[in-house]
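Hi C.,

You asked whether I'd gotten around to modeling the 127-residue construct. I have! Everything is below, sequence then structure, no commentary in between.
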Amino acid sequence: MKPRDDEWARRWRSAPVEQRRRIVRAVARGEAVADPRDAPLALEVIDRREQRLQSARSGWFSRWLSGRHLVILACIGIVAAVLFHDFFVIGLVLLTALYVVGFRVFLRRLEKSIAEARQNNEPLTRF
């Protein structure tokens, strides 16, 4: 762990559990925290989520989230359906495609809520 991560973890754990829950809920919903004193900690939570999101977007799995790969996967499923008549292979391909599409939707929603949370919490730190 980096020293900055240790420092953040110490600050995060020093906050009461209920305060941490309120901060995490507000960030997940894309809302501002109720107490302006929690805004700096909320912005750090947002920064950490953005870092994780960026690592997920730039990782090796991200290239499999492109539309081109989804079309290729669908074509493989259609070919499997025509050639093999094997419902297990068809189901496996369709479930994989469904998972990848769901993961793309999840990442987009996460990105949107993080942006909204940052937009709503940054003005609170200026006071």
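If it helps when you're writing up: The longest helix spans residues 87-125.

Thanks,
B.
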